[in-house]
Write a structure and sequence with these properties.
Elements (H helix, E strand, L loop, with lengths): L2 H8 L2 H10 L13 H7 L3 H8 L4 H4 L8 H9 L2 H14 L4 H12 L3 H9 L14 H7 L3 H9 L14 H8 L2 H10 L13 H7 L3 H14 L12 H9 L3 H11 L10 H9 L6 H10 L13 H7 L3 H9 L17 H7 L8 H14 L11 H10 L3 H10 L2 H4 L9 H7 L5 H13 L18 H8 L2 H9 L32 H7 L16 H7 L3 H13 L4 H5 L9 H5 L6 H9 L14 H7 L17 H4 L2 H6 L8 E5 L6 E3 L2 E4 H6 L6 E3 L6 H4 L6 E3 L4 H14 L5
Antiparallel strand pairs: 1-2, 3-4, 3-5
């Protein structure tokens, strides 16, 4: 700061005069980002402030029209009334509508400084002046719940219904911010209760939307007092008014709203607009309004659309509170097994759109199943799909629901193969890593009472793996130990050498999660006798580790190889059925530099050629990666003309990235690039099943999947369309 700044802060008028007299250019040499006037104002020195203003030096004072005049705002904030008086009089002298005055009035109003606000008004500041967003002082007072300021502004005849740039009036600001005293003052002063924002919302709408119940009650009471039939002429959404009137015990209004909705003269409950209204109430948040509506009109058996009655729609939306209300309503109850619409009962309807067990929506789905079963929903009419519901319950560790379903379902349904996880035991073992006590209890129940088997193979949807394959991928050490101890029971055999349809062993599945599951591998196979076994595609555990970026497991496997005096270079350069080594597989995945470094450091051959003459570099290019570029080659993101070497082009080798399909190959666990195929037979069996093969695995589909299954090729946008279609099953109930 300059000497002049310090003089202003200290309030030394003599020193200021001395500096200005002997160093008149001092004001133009300031290094401070603030003016001298600013320092005088924040220090509360009115005489110094006046002296500086008299200089008419813009570099000292900054009184230009575009400036926010920070000294005035700071003086207001700090309560320096006399400084405020000095600056305001100067601004008024320049222009009665000076922007600084409007901003100063707003500042005093926001901060609840009534005396300063009145001072500004007494000095002639425009009471209805507005900022660049068209907010007046009354807007700020109403929104900030500074009730004395609201009262002062009303008494001084501020415009009550002035609108900001979005059409909000002070009453709307008070309503949405939750200031009942301000709302009351504005209502009593005659503010327009029915004014709308540019978005079509009234003050009552805003109070309801923002949960300001007391403000809403004040507005509702005055609206009914002024215009008893105001709602009948309203074209806005009536659900919030119905809900709010019920909550506020304004039952006469609620009845009025219902009569308007069902078209008072005809009372036609089958009217499409009435059906749409009822459907829109079938959400937990509208439960109070729905209950009142239900008391007035019996819509328990009316079909609202192709999916059935209110019960069906509420169940399909997983609105448990609404379903409970519908099933227990004393006046118009509905039978839980009432058949209606496209699918039959409510339970049948929700089972048809069952989400994947590992989705968040699955918990809501199971909550609804549980609720319907507690109200004695008949599972027999659902049939085969109830097996998949049981699988979902077991996956989510829903013990009570699982036990209930196990009690109700027939043995053949419990042991049915199909769905997302194929068997109930696989579903249980695939669940999240917690609740081992429940898992062990249910394992024993499934095996001892219901005849499930750990070694039972499955169909092609997940490669025909057993429960042990699933456990190797997802279960805890404790659960694996529990399974292995089952070998001690008569007629129970846990075979770690039992392969799935693709020849993959349980130990291979310890790789898939990309986590360190070495302890799992050791628990499954203490001697690691199966560690270097190959599957039908001649893939070793290092191939899978490379593509899944499982560096930890790859390191562990290499340590075992060294300890067993195996030729590590030979292990690293083992080829699969197409001549691909683990380094080729590593080049298929992004963010895999650590794996590639591990393999190359330990002797992987970066010049190895596949059966189709691909180098690891070609694999990387095809999969949109840039690993192991040969010396003199080109980065994959350079122009395609530079990227294509003439020799690679002639030999048909990859020179650019293939399209990414967005699917994961169920055989090699790699993301699909280029040509890929989807099994339509599996998906037709159940919408939860997805089985895909990449360009590399598809030629061997007879080795990997049931021969009678049909595939369709997936274009680049195939999976997006496929998933959008499936998503519509869960979301578009009101549109169909």
């Amino acid at each position: 700061m300059s000497a002049l700044d310090h003089a202003a802060l200290c309030g030394s008028e003599d020193l200021i005069d001395l500096l200005l007299k002997h160093q008149p250019d001092l004001a133009t040499q300031q290094k401070s980002p603030r003016t001298v006037l600013y320092h005088a104002a924040i220090s509360g020195h009115p005489h110094i402030t006046q002296r500086l203003l008299d200089l008419n030096n813009d570099l000292v004072n900054h009184l230009d029209e575009d400036d926010e005049l920070l000294p005035l705002q700071k003086a207001i904030t700090l309560g320096h009334d006399k400084v405020v008086d000095v600056i305001v009089r100067r601004c008024l002298k320049a222009d009665v509508k000076h922007k600084a005055l409007v901003k100063g009035l707003s500042c005093a109003t926001r901060q609840g400084k009534a005396s300063l606000m009145e001072l500004l008004l007494d000095l002639g500041v425009d009471i209805d002046g507005f900022d660049r967003y068209k907010n007046t002082a009354l807007h700020f007072a109403a929104y900030n719940n500074t009730v004395p300021q609201v009262e002062i502004l009303i008494m001084r005849k501020a415009q009550l219904d002035c609108r900001d740039e979005d059409g909000y009036t002070p009453l709307m600001d008070a309503a949405r911010s939750g200031s009942p005293p301000s709302v009351r003052l504005l209502i009593n002063a005659g503010a327009n209760l029915e004014a709308l924002t540019d978005f079509g919302a009234s003050a009552l709408d805003l109070a309801i939307a923002h949960g300001k119940r007391e403000c809403g009650q004040l507005l509702l009471a005055r609206l009914l007092q002024r215009h008893p039939d105001w709602f009948k002429s309203s074209k806005r959404d009536c659900k919030p008014y119905l809900q709010f009137s019920v909550e506020c015990s304004a039952l006469e209004l609620a009845q009025n709203i219902i009569e308007v909705v069902v078209e008072k003269n005809s009372k036609d409950i089958d009217n499409p607009s009435v059906k749409q209204f009822v459907s829109s109430l079938l959400w937990n948040k509208w439960q109070a309004a729905l209950d009142f509506f239900w008391n007035t009109w019996d819509v328990s058996t009316n079909e609202l659309g192709i999916y059935g009655t209110a019960l069906h729609y509420a169940a399909m939306r997983y609105q448990t509170s609404v379903v409970e209300t519908i099933l227990t309503h004393p006046k118009h109850p509905i039978d839980v097994n009432n058949k209606s619409g496209k699918y039959g009962t409510a339970l049948q309807a929700i089972v048809v759109i069952q989400p994947k067990a590992n989705y968040v929506e699955a918990r809501k789905f199971l909550d609804m199943v549980d609720l319907l079963l507690k109200h004695e929903a008949d599972i027999k009419v659902v049939g085969k799909p109830m097996t998949y519901v049981l699988q979902a319950a077991l996956f989510q560790r829903r013990k009570d629901l699982s036990l209930s379903l196990l009690e109700k379902l027939r043995s053949k349904d419990i042991l049915r193969v199909g769905g997302q996880y194929q068997t109930v035991l696989r579903a249980l073992l695939a669940g999240p890593p917690h609740g081992d006590d429940v898992v062990e209890e249910l394992i024993d129940l499934l095996l001892d009472k219901h005849g499930e088997s750990v070694s039972r193979g499955t169909k092609g949807a997940n490669g025909g793996g057993t429960a042990l394959h699933q456990a190797a991928e997802t279960a805890s050490v404790r659960v694996i130990q529990h399974l292995m101890k089952l070998n001690d029971k008569p007629n129970v055999e846990i075979d770690i050498h039992q392969a799935d349809m693709m020849g993959r062993l349980p130990i291979h599945f310890t790789i898939r999660s990309s986590q360190d599951r070495w302890e799992i591998a050791k628990t499954l196979d203490p001697d690691l006798a199966t560690l270097w076994e190959k599957d039908q595609m001649h893939r070793t555990i290092l191939h899978f580790a490379a593509v899944r970026r499982n560096v930890v497991m790859a390191k562990r496997a290499l340590e075992v190889a060294r300890d067993a005096s195996l030729d590590v270079r030979k292990v690293l350069n083992e080829t699969d059925i197409d001549g691909w080594t683990p380094i080729h597989w590593a080049c298929r995945s992004g963010d895999n530099d650590e794996m590639i470094e591990l393999l190359t450091t330990n002797g992987a051959n970066v010049d190895a050629r596949t059966r189709d003459n691909w180098l690891p570099w070609h694999v990387a290019v095809f999969h949109n990666q840039n690993y192991l570029r040969p010396q003199g080659g080109h980065d994959k993101d350079e122009d395609s003309d530079d990227q294509e070497s003439s020799s690679d082009t002639r030999e048909g080798l990859p020179t650019r990235a293939a399209p990414e399909i967005g699917a994961l190959c169920n055989s090699c666990w790699s993301n699909c690039f280029g040509d890929a195929w989807h099994c339509t037979t599996c998906t037709k069996e159940h919408h939860l099943i997805e089985f895909d093969l990449c360009f590399k695995c598809y030629p061997y589909k007879e080795k990997l999947h049931p021969a009678d299954h049909e595939f369709e090729q997936m274009p680049e946008d195939w999976y997006w369309t496929f998933r959008q279609t499936k998503a519509a099953m869960f979301q578009d109930f009101d549109k169909k």
